[in-house]
Amino acid sequence: MTTDNNVLLRVEGLVKHFPITQGIIFQKQVAAVHAVDNVSFEIRKGETLGLVGESGCGKSTTGRTILQLYRPTSGSVTFDGVDLVATRGEELRKMRRKMQMIFQDPYASLNPRMTVGEIVGEPLTVHKVANKKEVNERVEHLLELVGMNPAFANRYPHEFSGGQRQRIGVARALSLQPSFIVCDEPISALDVSIQAQVVNLLEDLQGQFNLTYLFVAHDLSMVRHISDRVAVMYLGVIVELATRNDVYNKPLHPYTQALLSAVPIPDPVADAKRERVILKGDVPSPVNPPSGCRFRTRCPIAESVCAETRPEFREIQPDHFVACHFAERFV
Amino acid sequence: MPDFLLDVQGLETQFKTSDGVVHAVNGVSFSLPEGETLGVVGESGCGKSVTMLSLLRLIPTPPGEVTAGQAIFNNQDLLKLSNEEIRYVRGAQISMIFQDPMTSLNPVLTIGLQMEEPLMLHLGMTKKQARARAAELLGMVGIPSAEDRLGDYPHQFSGGMRQRVMIAMALSCSPQILIADEPTTALDVTIQAQIVDLVKRLRDELGMAIIWITHDLGVVAGIAQRVVVMYGGLIIEEATVNDLYAKPQHPYTVSLLGSLPRVDDTKHERLFSIDGLPPVLYDKPKGCPFAPRCKWVLERCWQENPAFEEVEAGHRVACWVDVKTGRER
What we know:
The complex is a heterodimer. By secondary structure, chain A is of the alpha/beta class. Chain A has helices at about 60-65, 90-95, 115-125, 130-145, 160-175, 190-210, 220-225, 245-250, 255-260, 270-275, 305-310; strands spanning about 5-20, 30-45, 50, 75-80, 80-85, 100, 180-185, 210-215, 230-235, 235-245, 315, 320.
């Protein structure tokens, strides 16, 4: 991969296994969930990297492991030149100011016993970056920024709708003026007409503060809309990574092709013209993933080599990475 | 009047809650010809599910109550049938599949037992016949080694497989109408594509009519022949699927289509956002329920609820405004 100064975050060989244990007193590990298995990518300053995949593919775990909410099993995460995996304690806390997260469920991610002002102001207090008066001023400003009435600071989360709560979550994420935000399915719990409101807000804020996003989602249409580059995950590995238009217009991995063809288009004429690749069966268990290529059990073009060797994640065209033995066929 | 399999007129459903009466459905009329797939689109709380549950008399009473309307099916009004009679209709003639395949199966009974029950109840089959038919149905919805899996419990199936089981159960008594309430919302896209494909194939084989309820305008485009759009407990637009997407007439439909990014979209335009929130219907809205969020709103919209009128052959809209000119029709 290229090494230029433009890179804000570099992830190399990231692995996260969750142990499965047996026994009550003497616990021993009997297996592991291979949630993320050797994932490498980089995020450039000011860009939005979309991370898509189906449920259980490890996209959320990747986001959380980057922020060190889960400690990785192995691999490195370099943010702004600092290796986060090696960082601990106070040093890591300082780094956390620069990277924040917006969560999927706006109902579960806000403490129901705290007022909106307390929720949005808490990071400022925790990191001791402002006194009480400054916190109040900053909270007002933040609420205005996300399109809410500053007078709402004294209200509780249950008084707000899903879309408004997500705005509160965005305000909290912005409070420490981070440079990087992991958006973990920020719109999937919202109604269709509200989704556009939140996405437009995220785009406006990105322009205003030069933010860098990792946008984790399963909605491929929305990811195409918001991302500059897109990574597609399947069963713990990234199978394809390229610019938005490359991934969507000329996907080189058979999984990406099938995934894209399965997305319904709100237009019956265009929908009828499309060629559908319907995948057979379900995603295998991450406890015991298939040997070689993870996708081979459902892949329409799999051959014997796919079961033997794990395909390398290689740059097939400039800035277009694919993990498939036969990707050249689709170029 | 042409022959309709199901003809619903002026349906109203209310819920009495401690905060007041919620007017969930406020006069819904639609009809379903034999063999047609009707899409019902709307956001959460627009009344789409309550409408269908009202028809099958599955609204818990109290707090809910169907206060007006009729639903003619096979020359009888579903809303006036006795409990015994409606039970015969449910499952045998009109069946329903639900959004969440995880919770609509009984976790402590085997799949086989749950599938045999309606067969023995409605069709009077013996246990042995029902078992054979259940295996046949599971095979039909694409579950491999169906006979062996009848002894399995629901937790041994994945989400997509469970939805297949639900579909097999719904089709077991060869219903004339299948009501599918957000059947793919809980599933991943590749599994959703499998299920949509399966339902289309079964529809062509068995020739039943389908009412497909969803909030996803994309899924409806691929499966429905005619679509109704609901908002605030009312149907606000009805058209053939091609007309609805090519020339939407109601401001809500226009805005909703504009707010959706498309996977085949190469332009990177800002999404059209609809301000405000869907209404909570404590009061029956006096004017148009969409007026507070509408970008085309006129003085009249606040005063009178527009009638549901035909603007073109087969295309009906409830709106005072012509979205092309921005003036009153």
